[in-house]
Design goal:
The structure holds three protein chains of three kinds. Chain A folds into two domains: 2-118 and 247-291, 3-Layer(aba) Sandwich (D-Maltodextrin-Binding Protein, domain 2), CATH 3.40.190; 121-244 and 311-326, Periplasmic binding protein-like II (D-Maltodextrin-Binding Protein, domain 2), CATH 3.40.190. In chain A, strands 1, 2, 3, 4, 5, 6, 7, 8 and 9 form a nine-stranded mixed β-sheet that branches. Chain A is built from 13 helices and nine strands. Chain A is α/β, with parallel strands linked by helices. In chain B, helix 5 (123-134) crosses helix 13, helix 15 crosses helix 23 and helix 20 packs antiparallel against helix 23. Chain B starts with a helix and ends in a 5-residue tail after the last helix. Chain B has a two-stranded parallel sheet. By secondary structure, chain B is mainly alpha-helical. By secondary structure, chain C is of the alpha+beta class. Chain C has helices spanning 42-50, 96-100, 109-122, 138-150, 168-185, 196-202, 220-225, 230-235, and strands at residues 4-13, 16-26, 31-35, 57-62, 65-69, 81-84, 156-160, 189-193, 205-210, 213-218, 240-246, 251-254, 257-260, 272-277, 282-284, 291-299, 303-309, 315-321, 331-336, 343-345. The longest helix of chain C is centred in the middle third of the chain and has 18 residues, at 168-185. The chains are: A alpha/beta, B mainly alpha, C alpha+beta.
Chain lengths: 330, 559, 347
């Protein structure tokens, strides 16, 4: 008996259990973008927030392997596709919270309230201001037209943002038409696909290509560094279904040790103060409609958004990946 | 090797007069050692098994798709990459090693160690720096653009050629180091023997020096091949799809972990076949030199030949190290004030601590493994040792999951057993111990190759002399092998140290809460395309890795 | 015309002169030997002949054709000079057959196989063709190295300390064997060694080297009995110097009596000289008036080698049939039985 006690003491000492209230967040969002915001939460509430960052896939595997002994209270990631997948794996628990329901519009959260969007990013068209007039642009589909031959830049198809974009296109247009469009993009490429949006935007600025598709916040961050970059933002599909939007979001894990604290943190993140921080640090659109975006972001205008529930993208992701494989979009 | 036949270890010998048949005695003496080898290999086998055990029924839709649209190209790409990188590292590594070991030319002493420096630079860092320099928006093309109508003539860096060049530049030091030391001990002598038999120096190089240095060169190439197969970061920068890419795609994009595991199993089998082929092709041949003679004086390269040699060495050093470092420095300088903080010292310190601990542990285990294999020499033990070193070829992320799953399982069992549920969430996971074990599974190959090579140079007569003096068993290891192996052990430690400094996925997956290291910083920044911010931790990785790299290059006694 | 000629060859490392104006000649079919202690430059001479080291001065001629001088060199691989290395330098990754056939690139496959088989026959290793070097004994490895060097039929064979890695027993046997092999093949060869027994057993001509200079280039017999320099006299064989005074054109007076040689020497009467007495020059003679004290003795089977003290306190060596067993401290009668007078002016 005493042996068991000793063992327990040793294990307790080795474990991360602590006396003060703690919340543990597994995040696939880059640490430098989320830590400053969580830091403010810690200061305000005195609750310690542990952060484990990593790729979304490995983090989900980790949650699965840990099962009921997972220290994680919240799993946070970018892209509705990932959130959908985590939910599919049963990693979340539903949350009933009036505050969250009020702060996060219905199309930015899981229908079953398993996860909530915390920030919104649009994936739209960018162009070189010296060679392209905005009047020449219209939709994602238009970028597949032969007039852009040798003038289009794209990020790699391996990035989930493009998978989600193509996923929603499948939802809107069906597989056949989407496949034609994506094939058209591939035929128009001016350069091998880029590893990230920033590099691609720089390439548009330098004139390697005329048009491309990127997330808005990358543009915002790039402008902070190079305000004179000759790159313009064009809201895609405004005459159609609206620009493709996606979310970063989070949910309370199924086996959260501090589910109450986790809900509190989610509520705090969806409230105005944190939403303002998301807007300013990351140059994203706040998920909470009561919060105004950063002035730079606001200056781009208020686009019509594709209002299909974002989780649609997740269910179509595998289909989208196979489609892109078929047309040789790497 | 059949040491045990004539030389029973005194440690397990029964007292004189004990009526135990020699055969049984021998078997008793062997089994503890065998079990130990098997135990060590378990640390690699278990994660591998986790990776490889998937439901045996493949997902038909996904496999159909992969077979039709992905696998043929991926296999072609992977093969092309392996062949290209092998050719590249052989060309760069062997020719530079030959120049430095056999000839005298301006700056030779400097180049001899400086050509090792690129080892300190992670391949993915070299990749994003090189792309940054040579791409359309990079400084070179930006500088040239105003002077030309168009830049279409400028080679595209983000291409297969670009990838092969960058990987060759990143990985050649493995081959260079091993080949240089092999040539230094027998290069000139090989030429002389050849000349005395009527072979010109060129023929002597091809027909004597190269075949004789083969095991060392092949050892380097094998490390490069395994590292290329496991690589994800570098190919991602170039958007070049390999077998590893397919594993990632199946897992993260198609959400089919089973398919990913099946693909990973294929990869493991391929690597294993590769290793066995290499082993088999050596046959009965021996490569250790009977007697070593004093190295002959270097042949002077005079006039333009000497300067050409310096020029080639400078070019490689420039491309693989100096230019990328300058580019990183430029990026870092743009955001230095925001980036540099006291935290940085902490990240660097953790990186060093982690690398150091891993280096010591891996080397120790590699030593025990090599010693036991030598003492036993049986087929089971050899196979177990081979398996234990295969983790190097498994993509880091995949292996990280393979390590994490059993650790988490063990934790869950322990917690359930002791009834601690609710209060305790972790016993081993998220501890340095679990992290180090994961590193061991990954880097045992690196440590083992250095230790094993040194072990092979200890002759049978050393053993026999020691046993004759009454030293055997573990005392033999401690009193005879350890001093003789010190060079090889040091080499193993340095190589593991540098590798762990650069490692990313396992660190991410298994580190304790908030335990950020330099490579975690690089990961976080590059994952968002924040190159300016990634540059500073990347430079720090290179700088911390420099000292062990220089020490390594000064080690004469390498593999 | 000599097959090999070295004409005042010099070579140095930095400021240190390794070979100093060395000249020698070797006839076709002869076996020459450079003998000297380590660091005397003998190996460097070999490496110069092989073409591994450039010359500072002088010329090397093979078959009358210049192959090396300070100005021009025939590349080593075009000299057709074979070499057996001190450590054999066998290729560990090649079998015996592959090793021996290595230098036969110009021959057809079948001609090569015949030549290799013939060479293995010559060195007595016909049964070991498939073995790898590490599976052979030291002596066998040595013979493989020899076969490999001889296979391409070099115009000259160089052997660098060929037996130094072997035990004494094997060394003697092999040196005889190798000489026979070389003679049977009519090979001209030069070997380098520090062991005079080896040199005497192997070579037709021996050169003693010291500090980069060739002291004497002669047959073993001449070296032993007619050394030209005090260094050679000292280095070759055993013996002791005893002072004497020249008493006539052919005579020297020693403590042990006066001795007159058959040949006149170039000494002036009254010169003080040192005379070399070999152990076999001092003969045990109970009837002799000259007595010496036994200081030490070494039993050599058929003989004793006595160290004897003369009245003056100087020591000489004497080889005495072993039935004359004298105790240490005993005084025995001795006399001189000189055939070759070896004397050097005192310095």
């Amino acid at each position: 008996m005493s042996k068991k006690l000793v063992m327990m003491a040793v294990l307790a000492a080795m474990s991360s259990a602590a006396l003060a209230e703690e919340i543990t967040v597994y995040t696939a969002r880059a640490e430098q973008l989320i830590k400053p915001i969580l830091g403010v939460f810690e200061q305000e509430t005195g609750i310690k927030v542990n952060v484990v960052s990593g790729g979304e896939g490995p983090l989900m595997e980790r949650l699965k392997a840990e099962g009921s002994n997972s220290p994680a209270d919240i799993f946070m990631t970018v892209d509705a596709g990932n959130l959908w997948q985590a939910n599919n794996l049963g990693l979340f628990q539903p949350v009933k919270s009036a505050a969250l329901a009020a702060n996060v519009p219905a199309h930015l959260r899981d229908p079953g309230n398993n996860w909530f969007g915390l920030s919104v990013r649009a994936r739209t068209i960018f162009y070189n201001k010296q060679t392209v007039k905005p009047e020449q642009l219209s939709s994602y589909e238009d970028l597949a037209s032969p007039k852009w031959k040798g003038k289009l830049c794209l990020r790699t198809a391996k990035k989930v943002y493009n998978q989600s974009l193509v996923g929603t296109m499948i939802g809107n247009y069906g597989v056949e038409k989407t496949e034609r469009i994506v094939k058209g993009w591939v035929d128009n490429l001016a350069a091998p696909v880029f590893p990230d949006d920033t590099k691609m935007l720089e390439a548009i600025g330098a004139g390697q290509c005329d048009v491309g598709i990127a997330n808005t916040y990358y543009f915002g961050r790039l402008l902070k560094k190079e305000p004179n970059l000759p790159v313009g933002l064009f809201w895609a599909n405004q005459k159609l279904d609206g620009v493709h939007v996606n979310v970063s979001g989070a949910g309370v894990t199924k086996h959260a040790k501090n589910a109450k604290g986790a809900v509190k943190l989610l509520e705090w993140l969806s409230a105005e103060k944190a939403q303002k921080l998301f807007a300013d640090i990351d140059m994203e659109f706040p998920a909470n409609p009561k919060v105004a975006p950063n002035p730079v972001v606001a200056s781009w205008g208020k686009p019509k958004q594709d209002l299909i529930n974002v989780s649609e993208a997740g269910s179509k992701q595998a289909q989208a990946v196979m489609l892109m494989d078929r047309v040789g979009y790497k | 090797m059949q040491l045990e036949k004539s030389l029973p270890s005194t440690r397990h010998s029964p007292p004189p007069g004990a009526a135990m048949p020699a055969g049984i005695r021998r078997r008793l003496a062997i089994w503890p050692a065998r079990l130990l080898v098997l135990a060590i290999s378990l640390f690699t086998v278990v994660p591998l098994a986790v990776v490889m055990t998937s439901s045996l029924s493949p997902d038909p839709a996904i496999w159909q798709h992969l077979l039709e649209f992905a696998l043929p190209e991926l296999l072609r790409n992977t093969l092309l990459m392996l062949l290209g990188v092998t050719a590249g590292v052989l060309l760069i590594g062997v020719s530079l090693a030959w120049l430095v070991a056999v000839y005298q030319f301006p700056g030779r002493r400097f180049f001899s160690w400086a050509l090792m420096l690129p080892l300190a630079m992670p391949a993915y860092v070299l990749a994003f720096a090189q792309v940054g320099i040579f791409e359309f928006t990079g400084p070179i093309q930006t500088l040239l653009r105003p002077h030309f109508d168009n830049m279409r003539w400028f080679p595209e860096i983000r291409s297969t050629t670009g990838l092969l060049l960058v990987m060759s530049l990143a990985f050649y030091p493995y081959v260079y180091l091993l080949a240089r030391n092999a040539f230094a001990t027998m290069g000139r002598r090989a030429l002389e023997v050849g000349q005395s038999l009527g072979l010109s120096p060129r023929q002597g190089f091809w027909r004597i020096a190269l075949p004789m240095a083969r095991p060392w060169i092949m050892g380097g190439v094998l490390l490069v091949v395994m590292e290329s197969l496991a690589d994800f970061g570098t190919v991602a920068v170039f958007n070049y799809d390999t077998f590893t890419t397919a594993i990632y795609k199946a897992w993260f994009a198609l959400f089919s972990l089973d398919t990913a595991k099946q693909l990973a199993s294929l990869l493991v089998v391929m690597v294993f076949v590769l290793l066995l082929l290499e082993q088999y092709s050596r046959g009965r041949r021996a490569y250790s030199q009977a007697g070593r003679t004093a190295p002959a004086p270097r042949l002077p390269l005079t006039g333009w030949r000497g300067w050409a040699a310096s020029g080639i060495a400078s070019l490689v050093l420039l491309l693989a190290f100096v230019l990328p470092l300058l580019q990183l420095g430029y990026w870092a300088s743009r955001d230095f004030a925001n980036q540099f903080s006291a935290d940085f010292i902490v990240y660097a310190w953790r990186s060093v601590l982690l690398s150091l601990l891993a280096a010591v542990l891996v080397t120790l285990i590699a030593l025990v493994l090599a010693y036991l294999v030598r003492r036993d020499g049986g087929a089971i033990v050899r196979l177990a040792a081979r398996v234990a070193t295969i983790g190097y070829a498994i993509p880091g992320t995949v292996l990280a999951v393979g390590v994490f799953v059993p650790v988490a399982w063990l934790d869950n069992q322990l917690i359930a057993l002791l009834g601690l549920g609710g209060e305790v969430t972790a016993v081993f996971k998220g501890t340095l111990l679990a992290m180090l074990l994961a590193f061991m599974a990954r880097f045992l190959a690196v440590g083992h190759s250095a230790v094993d090579a040194a072990m092979n140079r200890i002759t049978r007569s050393h053993d026999e002399a020691a046993r004759n003096l009454g030293v055997s068993g573990w005392a033999l290891l401690y009193r005879v092998y350890l001093p003789l192996l010190s060079g090889g052990l040091f080499t193993a430690m340095l190589m593991v140290f540098v590798d762990v400094m650069k490692e990313m996925p396992i660190t991410l997956m298994t580190r304790p809460f908030g335990w950020d290291t330099l490579s975690v910083r690089v990961y976080n920044m590059t994952s968002e395309g924040m190159w300016d911010q990634a540059a500073l931790p990347a430079i720090a990785i290179v700088l911390v890795g420099l000292l062990p790299t220089i020490l390594l290059s000064r080690q004469r006694d390498v593999a | 015309m000599s097959l090999l000629e070295l004409v005042s060859v010099s070579q140095c490392y930095g400021d240190k002169k390794i070979i100093d104006q060395l000249s020698l000649a070797l006839e076709a079919g002869e076996i020459g030997c450079l003998l000297g202690s380590s660091g005397c430059g003998k190996t460097t001479v070999l490496r110069c002949i092989a073409g591994f080291e450039p010359l500072l001065d002088g010329e090397i001629r093979l078959d009358g054709r210049g192959i090396a001088s300070a100005a021009a060199n025939v590349p080593a691989h075009q000299r057709e000079i074979g070499m057996v290395f001190q450590d054999y330098a066998l290729f560990p990754h090649l079998s015996v057959v592959e090793n021996v056939g290595f230098g036969l690139g110009g021959l057809s496959r079948s001609a090569r196989a015949r030549r290799v088989a013939a060479m293995l026959e010559v060195v007595g290793l016909a049964a070991y063709g498939k073995a790898y070097p590490h599976e052979l004994s030291g002596g066998q490895q040595q013979r493989v190295a020899l076969a490999r060097a001889l296979a391409p039929q070099p115009r000259l064979l160089l052997l660098d300390e060929p037996f130094s890695n072997l035990d004494v027993d094997l060394r003697e046997r092999l040196s005889r064997e190798v000489r026979e092999i070389l003679k049977s093949q009519g090979t001209t060869a030069i070997l380098v060694t520090h062991d005079q027994h080896e040199a005497f057993a192997m070579a037709d001509k021996v050169g003693v080297m010291a500090q980069g200079r060739l002291q004497q280039w002669a047959s073993p017999y001449e070296l032993y009995h007619e050394p030209q320099t005090r260094y050679v006299a000292d280095f070759i064989g055993q013996g002791a110097f005893v002072p004497g005074r020249v008493t006539g054109p052919r005579c020297v007076a020693l403590e042990l009596g006066e001795y007159c040689s058959a040949v006149p020497r170039q000494f002036v009467v009254g010169d003080d000289v040192d005379v070399l007495l070999r152990p076999d020059d001092v003969v045990h003679d109970d009837g002799s008036e000259v007595k010496a004290l036994v200081l030490g003795k070494v039993f050599r089977g058929s003989e004793f080698l006595y160290t004897l003290q003369l009245a003056s306190g100087r020591s000489v060596l004497a080889l005495v049939p072993s039935h004359h067993n004298h105790a240490i401290g005993e005084a025995i009668g001795i006399r001189l039985e000189l055939e070759h007078l070896i004397a050097f002016r005192q310095q």
